[in-house]
Design brief:
By secondary structure, this protein is of the alpha+beta class. Helix content is 50%, strand content 19%. Helix 1 crosses helix 3. The chain starts with a helix and ends with a helix.
């Protein structure tokens, strides 16, 4: 009988909580998916794990910026994550640099919610207001 992705997400989350080494867990997941011929489900499984862990209070935020973010900004982002969900126990930031950004940040929370605070997004919003005659 095929194990559902939701059940796999719970198993993986329990292993993470149990302190398994990330490299060992990655090898176990890869071996299982290969053996079961389910490797094409990897991206969906990762989203399921993030969603399951989010429900348990663990938030994962991808931060994209033009430059490396400071510790002060990291602290503010973590405070923000805690303020939008009072059940937040832990926040993990994955920081990425995108040199094509002029400035600002993009935050993707738990692989689903996007908060675009980039200069380009603000400029585009301003252009829309002009086109609508509101400015």
């Amino acid at each position: 009988m095929k194990t559902s992705r939701v059940e796999l997400a719970k198993i993986i989350s329990d292993k993470i909580d149990g302190g398994i080494a990330p490299s060992k867990l990655a090898k176990e997941i890869a071996a299982y998916l290969l053996e079961e011929r389910r490797i094409n489900e990897l991206n969906s499984l990762i989203r399921d794990v993030i969603k399951y862990r989010a429900g348990k209070g663990f938030k994962e935020i991808d931060v994209v910026s033009a430059h490396e973010i400071t510790k002060a900004i990291e602290i503010e982002i973590k405070k923000y994550a805690g303020s939008i969900d009072k059940n937040t126990k832990s926040v993990v930031l994955n920081s990425k640099i995108n040199k094509s950004l002029i400035g600002g940040l993009k935050l993707e929370i738990n692989a689903s919610k996007l908060l675009d605070l980039t200069v380009r997004a603000k400029f585009n919003n301003f252009k829309q207001l002009i086109n609508q005659g509101k400015v």
